[in-house]
Amino acid sequence: MIDLPGMAALWDALPQARMVGGAVRDMLAGREVADVDFAVPLSPQEVIARVRAAGLKAVPTGLAHGTVTVVACGRGFEVTSLRRDVATDGRHAVVEFTDDWEMDASRRDFTINAMSATRDGAVFDYFGGREDLAAGRVRFVGEAGRRIAEDYLRILRFFRFFARYGRGAPDAQAVAAIVALREGVRSLSAERVWSEVKQILRADDPRAVVALMRETGVLELVLPQADEARLAGMVARGAPVDELLRVAALLRGDAGLFAQRWRLSGAEQVRLAALMVPDALAPDADDAALRRALAEVPGEILIGRSWLGQDDRLGWDDLRARIAAMARPVFPVQGRDVVALGVPPGPGVGEVLDAVRRWWMAGGCVADARACLGRARAALDGDRLRFAQPGGPKA
């Protein structure tokens, strides 16, 4: 049974509560459980009152949907009142509260996510989720088409859960409903789509689920003309589980347009663009070439590019190990050093730095500050009058 810090205090305050959703599913599957959500046959106002009476903190994080975050022992737990749908439009639902556990479970997406468990470990399974979990089946609760029409994000969630829990052939009713309703994905917000795509690509081996997305026509909606063969080859060679690296493998189009469409974070955009730059490093590159590459690009990016560009030549694993073990060279001269040599502040400082850095790079990035400054002095000695002019060097 799961026993995270704070759970006992929450259950003391809300003895009617049950664990729901992913925590129950992963507990039964023998997987690690990091977060636990609860449901309760009480209104949000009742939850808040009982929690605060027990000396715990209650944060009304989503009252319209019945969710209160209970903070116990420094950990937050989402506690949601049992609900039934009044109206849905494929993206949002209008709900009202109930005390009927089976009705609440009936509005969940998949049978494996519709189970609940009490404090003493009794599991309530109204739709065969436990059997489906054991068999590796990802099956919608009730009619697949109806569940999808309530929220089109469930199309992508199906692929996410199939990648993580599915075995064998996918549920035929689910696949048929996805094919019929796949255009609903276009109505979803970019943020929701990208969140699910990332989680799909975090699967240990996403090849089968990506192929299923293509067969159902969903892959074309999120990653047009995806290069499945490139992804498959990279996964087969043992590349790390890295959703952005896998997007870079699949993506044939413009990384910038993809990032804009799905509203990737700034850090994700920068990393994806860097990964997709063709890399000239070969498996037999010498140390000087590696140092030059590392001076320009972080090792993590170079290693990612090596997975994307790997071919049948030998030595790629050794190349990655050498990159990981090598310290990143740092150009040892700064602008103030050049000014100290007599170059007036301004564009001339940058020109000297660029020239010396090119020399440093050509030599394999091993020259120290003294050698680099000596190079700068030698260059300045031949052009002292030009650098002494108020405007600095002329272009």
Mean pLDDT: 92
Please, how many helices? 22
Which CATH class of the largest domain is shown? Alpha Beta
Helix content: 40-55%
Family: Belongs to the tRNA nucleotidyltransferase/poly(A) polymerase family.
Protein name: Cytidine(C)-cytidine(C)-adenosine (A)]-adding enzyme
Domain Poly A polymerase head: 17-139
Keywords: Magnesium, Metal-binding, Nucleotide-binding, Nucleotidyltransferase, RNA-binding, Transferase, tRNA processing
Task: Describe the 3D structure.
The protein is α+β, with helices and mostly antiparallel strands. It has four domains: 1-135, Beta Polymerase, domain 2 (2-Layer Sandwich), CATH 3.30.460; 136-264, cca-adding enzyme, domain 2 (Orthogonal Bundle), CATH 1.10.3090; 277-325, no CATH class; 335-388, no CATH class. Helix content is 50%, strand content 10%. The protein has 22 helices and nine strands. It has helices spanning 7-13, 22-29, 44-53, 101-106, 129-135, 144-150, 153-165, 172-181, 190-201, 207-215, 219-222, 228-236, 243-250, 255-261, 266-275, 287-296, 299-309, 316-325, 335-340, 347-362, 369-381, 384-388, and strands at residues 18-20, 37-40, 57-62, 67-72, 75-81, 83-88, 93-97, 116-117, 123-124. A hairpin with a 4-residue loop joins strand 6 and strand 7. The protein is elongated and about 90 Å long.
